[in-house]
Amino acid sequence: MKIESGRNIGIMFTLGLCGIGRNEAMSYENHALYNEGSLIFNKVHIINPNDLYFSFEERKNCLIYSGTNNISSLSALIIRSTSYKKELITVLANALNNNGCYILDSIARFGNYSNSKLLSTIDRHKRKVSVNSYFISNENQVDSVLQNINNNNMQFIAKPLEGKQGKGITLINSSKEFRNYAKSFFQDKAGDEILFFQEYVQFEKEYRVLLFNGTSLGIAEKQNESFLKNASQGGKFICSDNIEAENYVLDKCSKVGLIGVDVAQTTEGELYIIEENYAPQWQAFEIATKQNIAKNVISELLIYINN
User: How many other C-beta atoms lie within 10 A of the C-beta of residue 23?
Assistant: First the structure.
């Protein structure tokens, strides 16, 4: 199908890129989306949530400004992160959706302000694709959790709820080490945080699959001597032809949005979904698979807008 840009057919197509903080540098992925979008869309708006203004008046579409720019009639919106001003981003996604904007993600993702890492873990458990995971809200629950697990030699991975790119993840090698970690965690957080941890499984291989609206953009194997396989933590990506893992992700994961899915395989061949990232980074993935991810995403966006 030939893609006609707004520039070529005289229609005003506008794109919004949102989720970039006021003092946050443009990432490789955001630069790529901006550059590719500028080739097809008449205007690409970089939206800082802190600059948003909304007007909800009776019998009118919502009026939305980003700084001095009226973005009420955006054709499409890509949300790259919800960790900064998530309430405003939620309002933005729902308001633009009501105005007829195409949102790159299920609008259900922006239905509440609850932490997505907790909710996505519950969702993966429901789908029976997750490793053993635990949440505790205070130090007094440690004994009960360890008693239920009943394995003093089990290793755990503790993950920060707002973490990304593998930052802040800690490998815990024993029940004793876990007790000390939990005690320190709750003292530092003054009881206001939830401790999220998972059983550490030594997988044989780990992969990243990039999905766009239910279609795979490719699969790459993640390699690193460390238990962390993220590219930002020194991991390397190589192109893979593991069709079984790729089909598993296609079958088990959302059919809406741009999603980076980490899937791991045991020596027995069992597959598990480790994480689903709705604002994936892809520079290492792109090099491994020799694809222009931003170009693919922007071209597909225009198809949805034209339809």
Answer: 6
| Class for the domain spanning 205-291 | alpha beta
- Reading the chain (307 residues) residue by residue, the pLDDT tens digits are 334 554 454 568 999 999 765 556 788 999 999 999 999 999 999 998 878 888 776 566 788 988 888 999 999 999 988 766 777 788 888 889 888 999 988 777 776 554 456 767 777 887 888 888 888 877 887 887 888 777 767 788 888 776 555 567 889 988 889 889 988 888 876 544 778 888 888 889 999 999 999 999 999 999 876 555 554 555 789 999 999 999 999 999 988 889 999 999 998 999 999 888 888 999 999 999 999 999 999 988 888 887 7
Domain 132-199 fold = Dna Ligase; domain 1 (3.30.1490)
Asked whether this chain's domains 132-199 and 205-291 adopt the same fold, the reply is: no
Domain 6-113 annotated CATH 3.40.630.30? no
Going from N- to C-terminal start, the domains of the chain cover 6-113, 132-199, 205-291
Say how far apart CA 298 and CA 102 lie, in whole Å.
12
Cβ neighbours of residue 84 closer than 8 Å, sequence gap 6 or more: 19, 20, 21, 24, 49
